[in-house]
Amino acid sequence: MSATPSRQKNWEPRVNKIKCILNRYRQRDLTLIGKTIVVNVMVGSSLNYLGSIISCPEETIKKIEETIFNFYWSGKPDKIKRPTIKDPAIWVGLAS
What we know:
0% strand; single chain; mainly alpha; 71% helix
């Protein structure tokens, strides 16, 4: 099922905002944990409200994930496989 144009139009500015946020933090020398905090706090909060009202199209989710992983690895190839880094069990020990 493809996204309706109105749903896509609602999400497009949000994706652009995420790119701007991550570009701002890209210039800093952050660790992977620091980058994860930026993604969780800055990106997560920008998606939270809209996501609770309008479901996110699959294409948009892929764009957001690509932007986030590009931020994590500074545009270089992934150092850790994506399914591994998406696994919440990996990050549980880092939260304390």
